[in-house]
Amino acid sequence: MLHGRTAICYAGSIKRFRIHARDDILRSVENQRADEDVETVAWINTLLDRFWLTMEPVIAAMVIEQADVYLQMYCPSVLESIKLSTFTLGNKAPRVESVRCFQRTDDDIVLMDWRVGFLPNDLSDLTGAQAADKVNPKVVLSIRLGKGMVGAAMPIMVEDMAFRGHLRLRFKLMRTFPYLKTVDVMFMEPPYIDYKLKPVGGERFGFDIAHFPGLPTLVKDIMTSVLGPMMYRPNVFSLDIETLMAAAAAGERAIGVLKLTVRRGKGLKNAELMGSSDPYCKISISGRGELARTKVVPSTLNPIWDETHYLIVQSLTDRLELEVYDDNKMKKDTPLGDAHFDLSVLENDPEFEEMYPLVLKNGREQGEINFGCSFYPVIEQQQAIEEGLDPFASNKGVLRITVHQAKELDASKSMVGAYNPYAVMRLNGKEVHKTRRLKRTNNAIWEETFETLVYDLDKAQLQLEVKDERDLTADVVVGTWQGKARHVVDMTTKQDNWFQLANAASGRARISAVWMAITTDLDMQHEGANKPPIGVIRLHVQEAKRLKNVENVGGGKSDPYVQVLLANVRRARTSVVEDDLDPIWDEVLYVPVHNERETLVLEVMDFNAHTKDKCIGTCLLKVSDLSAAPGSTISPWANLSLGKQTGRGVLNYAATFYPIIDTNAPVWEEACDCFIKEPLMDMLTVVIKSKEAESEDDPIYKFDIKVTEIIHALSNSTTISSEGEWYSSAQGVQIRLAFTFTPVDYEIDPTESALNVGVLAVDVKGAENLPAADKSGTSDPYAVFTLNGEKVHKTKVVKKKLNPVFDEKFTTPIHKLKGDLRVEVFDWNQVNQDKRLGSGVVNFAQLEPGMSLPQQVLLNNGDAGAVLVNLLFRPMFISKMTHRAST
């Protein structure tokens, strides 16, 4: 039993040993044979033969499409156009004759020798049917000489191309995508190349110049001189696949937005022989062309621009370039210096502000420029989705647009049936990109990509115009398209980005857009946007001493005044003090400011009636010096300077900063109706009162609006606006109201007419023939006027008179047809009660608006004398009939 089991174990062990040993021996033999033998790889050739008839037309179409782009791009100026009209490789597939693999290499290296051949005229391996249907390779390049209709096309044909070569390929692998790090290609021996070249005559009458004596040798020598140093053994042509793929993935894409504020310059070089330079600043990044520029500040070496620009940043290794120039109207602008700032500084600190020196061309520093910048990164749409973020969380960002191509353009607008097309892309009506011009094609391929800032993606509108460039007439619009930018982004995601052109019988364009949103909060405002103020500076300009006299003619003195500049715009100024070098103004000015980094320039000027005012000197007032302590006042004696000139005098002023208050402006959005009796006379009153107010007599604000103004505004408006108009109160507070007016067929009763409502002015002249109430035969009379039973006026007491003169005036609101104005005359008594002498009623029957009416008011029907008055009635709107006695 033991011997049997031992024999079985031994037999199994010997069998496993033989199998393993045989595998190791065979592997060693195969490796040695693979280094020396070659493989015919018939299976690859079989696949090529089967797929070639399907693959070749697709390859040919792609080559024609891509080649046309570069041919148009690099077309020589002597030619009107150049086009690859025909490209085919025939219906016989290329063959891999043999492959040799080397085994003894490093684990990450693949080394192979390939013998390949493309011999379409070799019929030895074709059947009779295949030989009868054979198509030879042919390439036709059409060039056009001349211009327009007088041009002529000339085909250049190359056919029957043949190639055979022995290549060594070396692949270096890596563990990450695309898994190929480098590919090295080398010809082990010069390749065999054959062709037929017919530069004129075309296929029918063309002559193959390759048969000219000496020409084939010349072409071969040229080919060897070019390819030999590049890839003939031992030279190797290397392709860094990893770098190429990384560059293709990254491209020149935006990584963020740079907010750049160019504040001011100081001590600039004076490039003018007379006067001072007119500086402005150009802005660029790493020499890629001008991206923006500031405005020109005239006649100063210390300009204040205070402008903000937004720039697209593609790499923080780039350099920001600020170039200051002197603006010249009649000659080239003169450089005043430049400053370079490395954006890599923003990697550690995304905000930067500093005074940078300006460097002249000779390397000498002269002047400084103050600027601040902040970096805001962006995130691409696909990356945001992969990270689980909303790619449209922010409407501010960068839009990357690619104008791919236009097809099937309507040829009816061209006399020759073909266009010289180019495309213009606009964002919100502003041109942001113009493609290059192609020649003589109705199927244009541009493949041009650009990036532009978008302030609100949801409201952004794109417009594409395809135009035909013409020499003697204006360019013609072939077709247009417009739509929302957000729609293009969505269609690009769905890969459905072909858009039909309008205003044309046919034609479509392919556009794609990728959204890159700003990841942090940025208050980005487009050019022209109004910046809200942060407060106001109260500037009490008091006096100046020892001013420089800039009057050169007549021996007089300067006529100084002070103007306040903010961002080179005059915001306020004082009056002129004539002929005085120690002027006293004692005037208060108010200047709104928009951020703490602004600087006010206080400029003392000399007034000239017939020439331009001259600057005596300036001083600066930084908002940050005041905003740190709102309400506190600084009152310096500031030294005045002009450029590098000092000793121009001193200016005394007091400055205080008052911040704005959040008003929390109320919004009601409520509607009501009211009846307008007389549009020509009625007044609409809107009262804003506190919720705790008990009556309308205690309004916070009151707005009086004439109904005629409302009707006039509605009649002149072409559209009815639901937003309304702003109306101001006497205190300067505004309210937005919207109105609609609907006439009613109604005739107002005279008693309700506004012509009978207004203010009555009463001039109380005196009285006559009053009765005597005292024992002395006289009276001490005074008069009391009542309106509808309410006292409105009481005159003074005139003692010891029967014909007193009062000469007093008063006014009272009145309804002419309903008012009852009575006058009562009393005798004043110091001890007893005043005695009534008589009474009468003022008659309004003959009272006309705006006309003065003298009237004798009889007392007790004339038995007690009369009161003499003069009446004047002015119709006007009375919001509430409230009468109070006036004295």
From TrEMBL:
PROSITE patterns: C2 (PS50004), SMP (PS51847). Keywords: Endoplasmic reticulum, Lipid transport, Lipid-binding, Membrane, Phosphoprotein, Repeat, Transmembrane, Transmembrane helix, Transport. This is C2 domain-containing protein. InterPro entries: C2_dom, C2_domain_sf, C2A_Tricalbin, C2B_Tricalbin, SMP_LBD, Tricalbin, Tricalbin_domain. Residues 233-356, 377-499, 518-638, 740-857 form the C2 domain. GO terms for cellular component: cell periphery; endoplasmic reticulum membrane. It comes from the Eukaryota. One of its GO terms (biological process) is lipid transport. It is found in: Endoplasmic reticulum membrane. SUPFAM superfamilies: C2 domain (Calcium/lipid-binding domain, CaLB). Residues 37-242 form the SMP-LTD domain. Pfam families: C2, SMP_MUG190-like. SMART domains: C2 (SM00239). GO terms for molecular function: lipid binding.
